[in-house]
Design a protein that fits this description.
255 residues, alpha/beta, two-stranded antiparallel ribbon, globular, disordered C terminus
Length: 255
């Protein structure tokens, strides 16, 4: 009786991606789901609740700093510590992705200001964005509408390039070396949208915010394109700076 040969893979496991979250119930959402599909594990940290941030990203493929209801201008210790910590991936030129609050923290670490809209307007719901030539060079198939939940925006940091622009808040996405900041939320799942629009329903009354039913109607139109863009973006983002010893595995994950 013949037995099938046993094959052993020599491929090394991919290093984890650091996930920095800001609430007890927060999840990495669609970003986490996409990274798991690519073969990455997630190292979830919540500095607000006492989790330490690593002194180096040598053991990580990259880091994602997510959003939250707080402001990058708040004086809380954890906000200051996180902004200071962003210097670590910048110095090491590791892939870093900031989403909404995370993008604003990145901008502040780079010397730019974060401030409310001068007329008090917010972006809560789907709004149009326009990729720049630099944005199209990095990822060609941008969605024309993306999901937002914010009432502050960031200046474009010196030495960075604008990847996408908007209307009420002109700076939607930027790149600084291997660090990227997104004012919008490609991480939001349908379940997250339900939670946010229920628990944060009072913010839907802010000037410029979309009514709750528009969030779900617009999602039915725009989500397929935004989801496909996110996968393509993450492929390219993590492939920018392979970690030593994982070059081949990273290249395979980005194909």
């Amino acid at each position: 009786m013949k037995h099938a040969p046993v094959c052993f893979s020599n491929a090394k496991p991919l290093p984890p991606v650091l996930m920095v979250l800001h609430q007890e119930t927060s999840t990495p959402g669609r970003v986490g789901n996409a990274l798991r599909v690519l073969g990455y594990s997630l190292d979830i940290r919540r500095p607000r609740f006492g989790d330490p941030l690593p002194e180096t990203l040598d053991a990580h493929a990259g880091a994602v700093v997510f959003g939250g209801p707080m402001s990058a201008n708040d004086c809380d210790d954890f906000i200051r510590r996180e902004i200071d910590w962003i210097a670590v991936p910048l110095k090491e030129q590791r892939p870093l992705l900031g989403i909404c609050l995370g993008a604003q923290m990145l901008a502040m670490q780079l010397g730019a200001s974060v401030a409310p809209h001068p007329e008090g307007r917010a972006q809560i719901g789907y709004y149009p964005i326009r990729p720049t030539a630099a944005g199209l060079a990095i990822c060609p198939d941008w969605p024309d509408h993306v999901y937002h939940w914010h009432r502050e925006g960031f200046e474009l940091p010196g030495g960075s390039e604008l990847l996408a622009e908007g209307s009420d808040f002109p700076n939607e996405a930027f790149r600084y070396d291997n660090a990227f900041g997104l004012q919008f939320h490609p991480d939001v799942t349908t379940a997250m949208m339900h939670r946010w629009t229920m628990r944060g329903h009072e913010r839907l009354e802010l000037p410029g915010a979309r009514p709750r039913h528009h969030h779900f109607a617009d999602r039915a139109v725009h989500d397929v394109t935004e989801r496909a863009w996110l996968k393509a973006f993450l492929d390219r983002w993590l492939a920018r700076t392979p970690v030593a010893g994982f070059d081949m595995a990273l290249a395979q994950a980005a194909e």
